[in-house]
Specification:
Structural class: alpha/beta
Number of helices: 11
Order of helices and strands: HEHEHEHEHEHHHHHH
Strand order of the largest sheet: 2-1-3-4-5
Number of domains: 2
Largest sheet: 5 strands, parallel
Number of strands: 5
Shape: elongated
Radius of gyration: 24 Å
CATH class of the largest domain: Alpha Beta
CATH topology of the largest domain: Rossmann fold
CATH architecture of the largest domain: 3-Layer(aba) Sandwich
CATH superfamily of the largest domain: Response regulator
Distance between the termini: 86 Å
Length: 251
């Protein structure tokens, strides 16, 4: 039989171990959360949005801001996984686009979700061209914002059907897609370039194979190589990439 002293020491050791495990588990849980910087057009809306997101266990808020400078400093200094920013800041309209371009020039790795009103349709293409990875409409239920943030954090693109349609229409009216690198050299073969507008038209792999007179397996291989060469992973990203590149060619 153990003495009282032995029992006390043993129990104390087990308690310390349990506390250590609890602290370790809590630390691990915190590290697995998606870190955010949240910026909206006013202090009230920014704080309300942050409070709503705080209720999501998978998210952690690093800072709330309302101006261009404060938001830029917060993202550059804190390096959040995702930044949720408004198209308009307290210190000026369309500052969100300016911030996206600045972050891109600074090679900041934080991915950005841009908050937009439903009436603001013209800014979609500019937003993705500036570096946004998601467009979230203010009329959308707030609980879907968490899904948007998670998707963007995983490297996906978030956009409504209406926004994707607008991008597709822009792609269809633009000049033929070349896909060139910084030296002006074509990254895609002629056949791969032919696939892009067909993808934009919403054709399935089977329909594209019929259009081009090749097997569906061949189309899958072409798309895989296109994704690999351009550093993307989905049809939506291919459309966004094509719109962005062609928009540059109009300048």
């Amino acid at each position: 039989m153990r003495s009282h002293a032995e029992i006390g020491a043993s129990d104390q050791f087990e308690t310390v171990q349990q506390e250590g495990r609890s602290e370790g588990q809590a630390s691990q849980a915190r590290s697995q959360r998606i870190s955010l910087v949240v910026s909206d057009g006013s202090y009230m809306t920014s704080e309300l949005l942050a409070r709503a997101l705080t209720r999501i266990k998978a998210l952690t808020i690093l800072k709330c801001t309302v101006t261009f400078g404060a938001t830029l400093d917060a993202i550059v200094d804190l390096r959040p996984d995702v930044a949720v920013i408004s198209l308009h800041f307290a210190d000026g309209p369309y500052k969100g686009l300016e911030l996206l371009r600045r972050l891109r020039d600074l090679s900041v790795k934080s991915r950005c979700v841009l908050l937009m009103d439903d009436a603001e349709r013209e800014g979609v293409m500019h937003a993705f061209r500036a570096g946004a990875r998601g467009i979230f409409r203010r009329s959308t239920p707030t609980h879907l914002l968490a899904r948007c943030i998670t998707a963007v954090h995983k490297g996906q693109v978030w956009a409504s059907s209406a926004d994707v349609l607008q991008l597709i229409e822009a792609l269809q009216t633009a000049m033929p897609f070349k896909g060139v690198n910084s030296r002006g050299e074509a990254m895609l073969t002629k056949r791969e370039q032919e696939l892009v507008p067909l993808v934009a038209d919403g054709l399935t792999n089977r329909e594209i194979s019929t259009e081009l007179g090749v097997s569906e397996h061949t189309i899958k291989n072409h798309l895989f190589r296109i994704y690999e060469k351009l550093g993307i992973s989905s049809r939506v990203e291919l459309i966004l990439y094509a719109v962005s590149e062609r928009d540059k060619n109009f300048k």
